[in-house]
Design a protein that fits this description.
The chain is α+β, with helices and mostly antiparallel strands. The chain is 55% helix and 14% strand. Strands 1-4-5-8 form a 4-stranded mixed β-sheet. It has a 4-stranded antiparallel β-sheet with strand order 2-3-7-6, with helices on one face.
Length: 362
């Protein structure tokens, strides 16, 4: 049995890669990292025109209604291009949550807007994934109060999807009174994270999210998207390392001819190659094998995070001093991998979660 990407998925991957090569080259990424957000907005408009905002939304709401494997292909390709655009939260997690947990009015209100690129929704699950003593949100009398950390795709969002500690999901309009937005400084300058401080903000419960399975499916999808993004970024770092080793000379020889450098590149390739199949299989489980989906998303996020960290470090070493320069730009992929590692749970936290799923805490 062949298990891999279909011709349609490969074509989608190629189209997005070409778009990013033409519209988001390294110079554009550098400009975005230096604060030129208008360039990021131009790239964002382009991915909307490609239909990526409606990728997982049902056709009846104006979407493409594609499966999680297609979404995974997109995430990996955006990661390979360090695309400075919203995706995992705004165009996968949020529409999935609304489709699974929203009532008909909520679906009619939000899904067509997301599919048409008219609405970006920031997603904050930190209270459910890893609650902190100095943060948290409370819902009472139709209003939310508290503090939500590390919203994914929250910068300039039109609305926010927030989870409380028990996993119930709430929608709030970004224009509502009582919201203070704090932009967080992270190592990754290609994407921004925000923190929300809420005081009696009008909120709407996604009634279906009282079922624990809704937040679990949304979280699983988010972890898979971050894992795919890391795989895409790590693959580029590996490819750049191999290419550099075949150009750079030292002591009159290409460094790629040195056994130590060969081993470094070979180890990166050996570690990373299985990760492609791992994210594809996890996507397959989310679509077709729900009983395995939770564990696979945990194992994939934890494992890919570790592999991505090692590949990013080794690739930088292969490049020597050049690897640390802004001119080369390798650090954009390095830092993107680093942020992905922490969002929606570090490897340590997720391994503990996976252990509980398998009954190891008994």
């Amino acid at each position: 049995m062949y298990f891999g990407l279909s011709e349609e998925q490969k074509s989608l991957e190629e189209n997005i890669s070409r778009f990013l090569a033409d519209n988001a080259p390294l110079e554009t990424i550098k400009a975005v990292a230096n604060g030129e957000r208008d360039k990021a907005q131009e790239v964002h408009k382009g991915i909307i025109e490609l239909g990526l905002s409606g990728l997982v939304i049902p056709e009846e709401y104006g979407g493409l209604e594609l499966n999680m494997l297609f979404a995974t292909v997109v995430a990996a390709t955006l990661g390979s291009g360090t695309a400075p655009v919203p995706y995992a939260g705004a165009y996968v997690m949020a529409p999935l949550a609304i489709n699974l947990g929203g009532d008909q009015n909520q679906k009619n209100q939000w899904l067509p807007k997301i599919a048409g690129g008219e609405c970006v929704i920031g997603v904050g699950l930190s209270e459910y994934v890893g609650a902190r003593e100095d943060a948290g949100i409370e819902f009472a009398n139709g209003k939310l109060s508290g503090r939500s950390l590390f919203l994914i795709d929250g910068k300039d969002a039109n609305a926010y999807l927030l989870a409380n500690k028990s996993g119930e999901l709430y929608m709030i309009d970004a224009s509502s009174s009582g919201i203070e937005v704090i932009e967080l400084t992270t190592v990754d300058k290609t994407r921004t994270s925000i923190e929300l401080i809420l005081k009696d903000v009008d909120a709407e419960l996604l009634t279906g999210s009282k079922d624990q399975s809704v937040i679990e499916k949304v979280l699983d999808a988010g972890r898979l998207m971050l894992s795919a993004d890391t795989v895409g970024a790590a693959q580029v770092m590996l490819d750049k390392s191999v290419a550099y080793s075949l150009e750079r000379k030292q002591f009159g020889r290409l460094i790629g001819s040195f056994q130590a450098v060969k081993h470094m590149c070979a180890e990166m390739a050996a570690d990373l190659e299985p990760c492609h199949s791992m994210i594809w299989h996890t996507a397959h489980c989310l679509d077709h094998v729900p009983e395995e989906a939770r564990l696979m998303s945990c194992q994939t996020k934890a494992h890919v995070s570790e592999v991505g960290k090692q590949v990013s470090k080794t690739a930088t070493e292969v490049h020597g001093g050049m690897g640390f320069t802004d001119e080369l730009g390798l650090h954009y992929w390095f830092k993107r991998i680093g942020l992905n590692r922490q969002l929606l749970g570090s490897p340590e936290l997720i391994r503990e979660e996976a252990g509980k799923l398998q009954g190891f805490d008994q």
